[in-house]
Amino acid sequence: MDCLFCRIIDGEVASHKVYEDEHAYAFLDIYPTSRGHTVVLPKKHIASFLEMNEEKTAELFTSVNRIAKKVIGVTGAPGVNIGINNGLVAGQTVPHVHVHIIPRYENDGGGSMHTIVDSNPDREELEQLAASIYSRF
Ligand code: AMP
Ligand code: ZN
Questions:
Q1: Which one, of 78, 98, 93, 87, lies nearest residue 38 by Cα?
Q2: Which residues of the chain carry a pLDDT beneath 70?
Q3: Which residues are named in the active-site annotation (predicted)?
Q4: Does any ligand 1 atom lie closer than 6 A to the CB of residue 81?
Q5: What pLDDT score does 57 carry?
Q6: What is the pLDDT of residue 100?
Q7: pLDDT at position 31, please?
Q8: For the sheet containing 79-83, what is the strand order?
Q9: Which protein residues have a CB closer than 5 Å to ligand 2 (ion)?
Q10: What pLDDT sits at residue 121?
């Protein structure tokens, strides 16, 4: 498996590591969107968030929560976006699940996650869509 992030975890490729535990690994993004931009990944290779079970998800996000607090503590950023680009159409470029922690600053010129896409979905479908999703649990 030739995966860049697996190679970073294995120490074959250098990174600016900020955290490591039994399940997770985190380093500064090499092309940071903002100061302190960090990526957090499960140590075990998995390509898609949708393939992760609840236990692995809980482990990953426990680490994300822990790391985000430290990143914010160091940078002093008054806000943060936390998210995953999952799948090619969503902008995922490295097929190893990773959570972005992107500190946000006053007047940094960025927008909210709502600005990622503007496809104007049908608002009248909301009720039916909600019912379909709700019924799957
Ligand atoms: P994504 O586009 O969500 O798949 O995110 C991949 C991220 O990995 C991008 O933000 C890249 O800047 C970052 N990245 C790519 N190569 C490296 C690297 N060698 N070290 C640290 N971050 C990297
Ligand atoms: Zn990998």
A1: 98
A2: 1
A3: 98 (tele-amp-histidine intermediate)
A4: no
A5: 98
A6: 98
A7: 98
A8: 17-20, 24-28, 38-42, 99-104, 79-83
A9: 3, 5-6, 45, 96
A10: 86
98 is catalytic: yes
The pLDDT assigned to 62 comes to 98
The reported pTM is: 0.97
Distance from CA of residue 48 to its chain's centroid? 11
Judge: domain 4-134, CATH 3.30.428.10: yes
Catalytic residue among 37, 96, 98, 114: 98
**Cα 24 to ligand 2 centroid, rounded to whole Å:** 12
Contact by Cβ (8 Å): 28, 103: no
Our mutation pick for probing the ligand 1 site, out of 12, 29, 81, 82, counting the most ligand atoms within 8 A of Cβ, is 29
φ, ψ for residue 39, nearest 5 deg: -120, 140
Quote the longest CA-to-CA distance of the chain: 52
CA dist 119 to 41, 101, 114, 123, 127, Å? 30, 25, 11, 11, 18
Res 118: pLDDT: 83
Residue 120: what pLDDT? 85
Residues 78, 72: Cα–Cα separation, whole Å: 8
pLDDT tens, position by position, 52-64 = 999 999 999 999 9
